[in-house]
Design a protein that fits this description.
2 domains, mainly alpha, Farnesyl Diphosphate Synthase, two-stranded parallel sheet, globular, about 375 residues
Length: about 375
């Protein structure tokens, strides 16, 4: 059984990194995290207390890398250079001057105030990384490094957002690999960090659950990819593989016309079916968490329910390529789901019925 690691003392920090006071720690892992984590903050808040710091810290670092790669006021080659520099700093040893330079060069190019604060806080965030236990630090570095590979792939595969050109992935294997880099690895990380901090998971098959965690992450990413097709196309990115497009007599540019929604629907259906297979693994993952760990169950259950409900909306959207007709669920549905889940989460039969009903709703429309 993995035990809680004793945080590193201030004396073990690289000399150039700033000390993180309790007030700074609270600012980073509460106020700033809430400001940049969007809907994921709900999941972070319901997590058991001993998991919030490592998962929250991993999210801050991944969000910083994503902000760097999405700084559209800079050309892709400059973004890539800063992203690779940031990856080096995360892997260590870190240097406060280099981190501050990244923040200085990119902060004023962010439209959102919280993203400016995030980049200007990089020395403190990396300093906080150095104070967590050795096992947590290695896991966080691993997942952030892998996520940055997915961001690097976006920057090197697709044209600039304002070029009016669109590129697609070459084949289904490339899409599956991408889904691992940007989400599957998170399920892998989530599994390892949960085992390390949860006494009752010590008997889990770490390898088997890690593989289910990867599939869990891919389910969520496939849902995001399919939902965001209209938006991504207008950024020059088509995640439908080129061989699949050719098989249906389509090009990435043709998908810009919402009237092709019906012709392109077989590709949407194929993508939804792939996601549903991954969601089966996600369901088993949730049910493998002992019922007494209610918070951990809820944190994994909510993304499954939201993802399947989103797929149901997408499957029923006849104008799914139209950016003015997005497939999304309402906040009211989300809040109602959260309330209902408090009663259902401790019952395997209720969860199977609920998740199965959502899956059936998707399949009936296909």
């Amino acid at each position: 059984m993995a035990t809680e690691k004793i945080p590193a003392s201030a004396s073990t920090l690289p000399s150039s990194l700033p000390l993180v006071s309790p007030a700074d720690r609270k600012r980073l892992l509460s106020g700033l995290l809430k400001g940049v984590s969007r809907s994921f903050y709900l999941t972070l808040r319901v997590l058991p207390g001993n998991l919030r710091t490592p998962i929250g810290l991993a999210y801050l670092l991944a969000r910083a890398a994503d902000t760097i790669s999405d700084t559209r006021l800079l050309p892709p080659d400059e973004r890539l250079r800063h992203l690779l520099g940031f990856r080096t700093q995360v892997q260590g040893p870190a240097d406060a001057e280099s981190l501050a330079r990244i923040g200085f060069l990119l902060t004023d190019k962010q439209a959102l105030p919280k993203e400016r604060v995030l980049l200007s806080s990089l020395p403190q965030i990396i300093s906080l990384l150095e104070t967590v236990g050795e096992e947590d630090r290695a896991l966080i570095r691993g997942v952030v490094g892998t996520l940055s590979l997915g961001m690097e792939a976006d920057l090197t595969t697709f044209p600039t957002e304002d070029s009016e050109n669109i590129a697609s992935l070459p084949d289904s294997a490339a899409l599956d690999r991408y889904a691992y880099l940007v989400a599957g690895c998170v399920g892998e990380f989530w599994t390892a960090i949960s085992i390390a901090h949860t006494r009752g998971l010590s008997r889990w098959d770490a390898v088997g659950m890690g593989e289910m965690g990867i599939s869990f992450g891919k389910a969520l990413q496939m849902t995001n990819v399919l939902r965001d097709v209209p938006k991504d196309l207008r950024m020059g990115r088509c995640y439908f593989p080129q061989d699949q497009l050719e098989a249906h007599g389509l090009t990435p540019d043709a998908l810009l016309d919402p009237s092709t929604s019906n012709q392109a629907r077989p590709m949407l259906v194929d993508g939804i079916r792939i996601a549903l297979v991954h969601f089966q693994a996600a369901e088993e993952y949730v049910l493998a968490i002992p019922r007494r760990y209610l918070r951990l169950r809820l944190a994994t259950l909510w993304p499954v329910l939201i993802g399947l409900a989103t797929l149901a909306e997408l499957a029923g959207n006849g104008d799914w390529l139209n950016p003015n007709h997005p497939s999304k669920i309402t906040r009211l549905w989300v809040y109602g789901m959260m309330v209902r889940s408090l009663l259902a989460a401790s019952s395997n039969s209720m969860l199977r019925s609920w998740i199965g009903g959502l899956r059936q709703r998707v399949e009936q429309v296909l």
